[in-house]
Amino acid sequence: MPAVRVGGMPAEKGRWLFVGFGLLANVCLGAVYAFSVFRKPLEDLWGIKATESGLPFMVFLATFALGMAFAGGLVERWGPRKTGILGGILVGIGWILSGFSPNVLVLTLLYGVVGGAGVGVAYGCPIAVATKWFPDRKGLAVGLTVMGFGISALVVAPITGALIGSVGVLRTFTCLGIAFLAALVVLALPLRFPPAGWRPAGWAGAAAKAGTVELDRNEMVRTASFYALWATYTIGCLSGLMAIGIAAPFGREVACLSASLSALAVSVFAVFNGAGRPLFGWLTDRLTPRYAALVSFGLILLAAAALWRWGEGSAIVYFIAFSVLWLNLGGWLAIAPTATATFFGTKHYGKNYGLVFTAYGAGAILGNVLSGVLRDATGTYLAVFPPVMALAALGLVVALVGLRPVKACR
User: Fold this and answer.
1) Three-state secondary structure of the chain
2) Most confident of 339-348, 388-397, 400-409
3) Which of the residues 45, 81, 102, 234 could staple to 359 if both were Cys, CB 3.0 to 4.6 A apart?
4) Distance (Å) of CA 387 to CA 167, 375, 381, 383, 404
5) 206 domain-assigned
6) Are 349 and 60 in contact (CB under 8 A)?
7) Are 353 and 339 in contact (CB under 8 A)?
8) pLDDT at residue 8 above 60?
9) Do 107 and 237 belong to one domain?
10) Per the structure, how many domains does the chain have?
11) What range does the domain containing 315 cover?
């Protein structure tokens, strides 16, 4: 095979450009994590309650997960460039038109459904590119690519707040939508898969020795490894997304922090959310998905136990434990895509990971419902953590027993 070059460099070096493009695209796609900045201004604008102002966020996450499942095949048929452009256009349109919403229901349709679907279409493209260009370092490459999604709130939230103050809440959606549309389309243009049969220099022999499988979606769902991965991914996302949802109110109500310090804590936690992706991606490469999952569930169990036992009135326990929970949410967004490629191959990766990613949506819904119901029933967010401890223990068992590579047929 002729030497493959990327950006004028040998592919082994130039392929890192795709990680950079994917990271920047994910900063735009992950702006949903900054939606809390919109909530109070929307409540004041339309005279709605907190439950209603959170509806666009919930619908966005659900549509995002479903969009991944349905759009996975597009990456295989159209390639990452065309699919990424389509996703970027949908994201831009959803945000731009949200600025003309007359009420929260229309905003939910435009932002939650159209914008969420666009993220569902676009999100898998840079991940699929990273897994194919980095068969030797899948976890690290994917972790760095999706790190942009985790740190997005750090970048987007202050910009959003400044825009709301200067142009108003609805026009802010439109301004950001124009920026996201342009950025996502430009960043999708360079995306491509390596030529068929390409492997990093010196890696082909190791790959052949290890043995690989290439399962399509129908074959994947007939394996026990798929259900173990889906279950562990759901548990990991449930604890992390629940931590995102209750971090600020837990800080004020239970840890007894001021409102300003609770808000600052969320920014600190976002750093851990972003850092968890390359960290656990690297661990997954080093330890295998199974043992990386065991590390993650062990940390979740310890963090939940610390909050339940010592979290009341303790700022130190609050900061440490919630940092760990946010770290592990980021971690699972690297473990799961890497495990999908490791267990089921990269040939049908778009479709396969699209289905696996529905666990993220299940975790988002269950986490928010669980935390709300338990808080309302008991009067304290401390009640959330015994169930999280039980789920983490279950995750340890499922990961230990079920997260195993699928054997290739000879």
Assistant:
1) CCCCEECCEEHHHHCHHHHHHHHHHHHHHHHHHHCHHHHHHHHHHHCCCHHHHCHHHHHHHHHHHHHHHHHHHHHHHHCHHHHHHHHHHHHHHHHHHHCCCCCHHHHHHHHHHHHHHHHHHHHHHHHHHHHHHCCCCHHHHHHHHHHHHHHHHHHHHHHHHHHHHHHCHHHHHHHHHHHHHHHHHHHHCCCCCCCCCCCCCCCHHHHHHHCCCCCCHHHHCCCHHHHHHHHHHHHHHHHHHHHHHHHHHHHHHCCCCCHHHHHHHHHHHHHHHHHHHHHHHHHHHHHHHHHHHHHHHHHHHHHHHHHHHHCCCCHHHHHHHHHHHHHHHHHHHHHHHHHHHHHHCCCCHHHHHHHHCHHHHHHHHHHHHHHHHHHHHHCCHHHHHHHHHHHHHHHHHHHHHHCCCCCCCC
2) 388-397
3) 234
4) 43, 13, 12, 8, 26
5) no
6) no
7) no
8) yes
9) no
10) 2
11) 214-410
Any domain includes 71: yes
- Is residue 171 located within the same domain as residue 313? no
CB neighbours of 368 closer than 8 A, spacing ≥ 6? 58, 241, 242, 245
Please check whether residues 23 and 132 belong to one and the same domain.
Answer: yes
Is 0.85 surpassed by the pTM of this model? no
Q: Are residues 19 and 167 in the same domain?
A: yes
> Do 42 and 163 share a structural domain?
yes
Cα 242 from Cα 170, distance rounded (Å): 27
144 within some domain: yes
Tokens of 317: 């326990």
Residue 200 near residue 12, CB atoms below 8 Å: yes
Q: pLDDT digit string (tens) for 97-122? A: 999 999 999 999 999 999 999 999 99
Give the end of a domain, one of 144, 162, 196: 196
Whether residues 176 and 266 share a domain: the answer is no
Q: What is the chain's mean pLDDT, rounded?
A: 89
Domain boundary among 170, 196, 222: 196
Res. 94: pLDDT tops 70: yes
Helices (H) and strands (E) in the chain, counts: 18, 2
CB atoms within 10 A of CB 122: 30
61 and 108 in a single domain? The answer is yes
Tell me, yes or no, whether 379 lies in a domain.
Answer: yes
Task: Say if residue 87 is in the same domain as residue 225.
Answer: no
The proportion of the chain whose per-residue pLDDT surpasses 70, expressed as a percent, equals: 96
Instruction: Name 159's Cβ contacts closer than 8 Å, sequence gap at least 6.
Output: 176
Identify the CATH number of the domain in which residue 219 sits: 1.20.1250.20
